[in-house]
Amino acid sequence: MTQKQEYIPLPKVFQLLEKYDFLFFWLRWFYPQAKGVNPAHLLFQFIPQKIFRTNGNVPWPVHKTSLVLHHKNIQTGNNSPIGINIGCYIQGKGGIKVGNNVRLGPHVGLISANHAPEDYDLWIKVKPIEIGNNVWIGMNSVVMPGVSIGDNVIIGANSTVNKDIPSNSIAVGNPCRVIKEKEAYKGKTYE
Fold it and tell me: For residue 41, what is the enclosing H or E element?
């Protein structure tokens, strides 16, 4: 018999800011790719990102300790502010396509291009990283160039994703492999 899980609600300030989201319309000018993101996240990142210019040109909120390179090669879906957690490294040189409702844990790396082994000043061209809808990538995980992650996927902490991961699965390890099928996503999809 499985026990019913209890959930921790959003902090009251997040709930309040979400309720009065219309008052923060001006933040959307600074973050045009932050559709569906709670205004609390936008406010928290605003001063370090838009005033002190840490990742200042990135059109979605990014934590001051994270680094986003080649942001123009990155497409993000609704409520997918990649790099909003601490210490993330998002390298978009080879292109990254992110679906709706994607979460990255702390210290996640998305590496979309790699150096040529015979000349470190050259980059190997591969297909972009593709991440589907409703994906959660756990802490300290790395997604390598050319990898495709399907919809409704959880990648466990400390995983190295070097091969495609199919939809509706939970995958872990180094190298990352599917360990079980995942039930359908029941939360808000932000489409």
Answer: helix 39-46
Going by C-alpha positions, the residue among 73, 79, 60 that lies closest to residue 110 is: 73
Enclosing H/E stretch for 12: helix 12-19
Would you list the domain boundaries of the chain?
12-180
Sheet with 153-155: strands ordered across: 102-104, 135-137, 153-155, 169-172, 177-181
Q: Of the listed 41, 63, 70, 115, which one is catalytic?
A: 115
pLDDT digits (tens, 9 = 90+) for 50-95: 999 999 999 999 999 999 999 999 999 999 999 999 999 999 999 9
What CATH class does 12-180 carry? mainly beta
Q: Report the predicted TM-score, pTM, of the whole model to 2 decimal places.
A: 0.91
Q: Which two tokens stand for residue 149?
A: 């992650």
Angle, helix 39-46 to helix 12-19, in steps of 10 degrees? 100
Contact yes or no for 46/30 (Cβ under 8 A): yes
Handedness of CA 157, 162, 167, 171 (dihedral sign): negative
Per-residue pLDDT reduced to its tens digit, 126-140 = 999 999 999 999 999
* Residue 189: its H or E element: none
Residue pair 49/84 in contact (Cβ under 8 Å)? The answer is no
Is 115 designated active site? Answer: yes
Conformational region of residue 172, where left means phi above 0, alpha means psi within -120 to 50, and beta covers everything else:
beta
CB-based contact 176:165 (threshold 8 Å):
yes
